[in-house]
From TrEMBL:
Protein name: RsmB/NOP family class I SAM-dependent RNA methyltransferase
Chain residues that bind S-adenosyl-L-methionine: D275, D321
SAM-dependent MTase RsmB/NOP-type domain location: 161-440
Organism, as annotated: Neoroseomonas eburnea
Alphabetical GO biological process terms: RNA methylation
């Protein structure tokens, strides 16, 4: 494809994302699902061209708050064409003449810029992406509705955390202890030309500096490794699931933490992966087989289901990886900062509270309830714990420091405070929260 044809495809993809993800009336589908459908319908776009088109569209998504500010500043509505033009001028640093030349009106290229678009190009050329006159939301590239909560969470470190949420995330892997250990997993990857270094906190983790096609490696196909952010690994670590225990992963999803806990259990005992989605549980079954997990079962949670009532008070560990805003994963999912709205937060906080109450009933006396999110918002984390404990359900916090030193001796505690609270800038992981609570014996 010519540069103009790539630009035309990128404009089409930006338009599809706007219509299906970000517009007020949009279905708010995940952007990667929209992009997947987009390229599936255009199989003539080859691999290299696909990467170029994706990078251009994703560049718009990552900087959308700032691009909208610049276009509003010059009195222009942010159309897909203008967003791509602004991306070229402000983010990529393309010269004005070169950027305008991409809109060449060729057979597969975008139509030539009209007079208003050319005036916009002239106004944007040479500007810095971050302008001193910007609102805090645009300057930090964070949605305005989340700013008060994030400022309360990070204080003076907010700007540093905002910058970390824009940076490219590393690729973290977990060595599958059922098949190998971290050293041998690293050696297996090295034999395939992939250099991985140990993660600083997780004793099972390996880190690659950027995304690589791991799923095609023999190490992945043989179940030696799993793709899992270090922060997610630490949640499974703090669950302290041991051989012979009965464990419930109450919101298992694709079973990443189920896999990790099955490994710490040495395939002994019983672990139940629960979810409300049959499709997610089916995907989990494939991962469990590949990893060699044979002490796990799956259960589909459905309205009227009596499974939880029949098993009340019978589990040693119950992990609640609660549905949340996903604010801690914005560096991996930049579209989420545009799709998520304040009403979503309010709904999710209510759902989390309800799930916690139900999951707590499953914990046996002396057992533990582990609550986790991939959010950095206090409403979904510390405040949720305060609300739960205020109900007086017979649970008490297990302080992080003592638990950590018992589980990972010799490794510094990742953060201060009673709970595990991780962020990209402070710990280099995605933003995660984890609280461990013990039920009175």
């Amino acid at each position: 494809m010519t540069p103009s044809a790539r630009a035309a495809a990128a404009i089409e993809l930006v338009a599809a994302l706007e219509e299906q993800c970000f517009a007020p009336e949009a279905r708010r589908r995940p952007a990667d699902a929209v992009a997947s459908d987009f390229f599936r319908a255009r199989r003539f776009i080859g691999g290299g061209d696909r990467r170029a088109v994706s990078e251009a569209a994703w560049g718009v998504v990552r900087q959308r708050l700032r691009l909208d500010w610049h276009l509003g500043r010059i009195g222009m509505v942010p159309t897909p064409r203008l967003l791509l033009l602004a991306q070229m001028l402000l983010v990529e640093g393309t010269a004005r003449q070169a950027a305008e030349a991409v809109f060449d009106g060729s057979r597969y290229g975008p139509p030539v810029l009209d007079a208003a678009e050319r005036r916009a190009a002239a106004a944007l050329a040479g500007r810095a992406l971050v302008d001193p006159a910007m609102s805090d939301s645009a300057r930090l590239n964070l949605p305005g509705w989340a700013l008060p909560a994030l400022a309360a969470r990070f204080g003076e470190a907010l700007a540093r955390e905002a910058a970390a949420l824009e940076a490219e995330a590393p690729l973290d892997l977990r060595a599958n202890l059922l098949r190998t250990d971290r050293g041998r997993a690293a050696a297996a990857l090295a034999a395939e030309g992939i250099a991985a270094t140990p993660t600083p906190f997780s004793p099972w983790g390996l880190r690659l500096p950027s995304r690589q096609p791991i799923t095609g490696t023999a190490a992945y196909k043989d179940g030696l490794i799993e793709v899992q952010d270090e922060g997610s690994q630490l949640i499974a670590l703090l669950a302290d699931a041991r051989p012979g225990m009965r464990v419930a992963d109450y919101c298992a999803g694709a079973a990443g933490k189920t896999l990790a806990m099955a490994a710490t259990m040495g395939n002994r005992g019983r672990i139940t992966a629960c979810d409300t989605s049959a499709a997610r549980l089916e995907g989990a079954a494939r991962r469990l087989r590949r990893a060699g997990v044979d002490n796990a079962e799956r259960h589909l949670l459905a309205p009227g289901d009596r499974w939880a009532k029949r098993r009340a008070g019978s589990f040693d560990r119950v992990l609640v990886d609660a549905p949340c805003t996903g604010t801690g994963t914005w560096r991996r999912n930049p579209d989420a900062r545009l799709r998520t709205r304040p009403e979503d937060l309010a709904e999710l906080v209510a759902v989390q509270h309800d799930i916690l109450a139900k999951a707590a009933e499953l914990v046996r006396p002396g057992g533990r309830l582990i609550y986790a999110t991939c959010s950095i918002l206090p409403q979904e984390n510390e405040q949720q714990m305060e609300r739960f404990l205020a109900r007086g359900p017979g649970f008490a916090p297990v302080p992080l420091e003592g638990l950590w030193r018992a589980l990972v001796p010799g490794v510094p505690v990742p953060c201060a405070g009673p709970w595990l609270a991780l962020s990209p800038a402070a710990q280099g992981t995605d933003g995660f929260f984890c609280a461990v609570l013990e039920r009175a014996a």
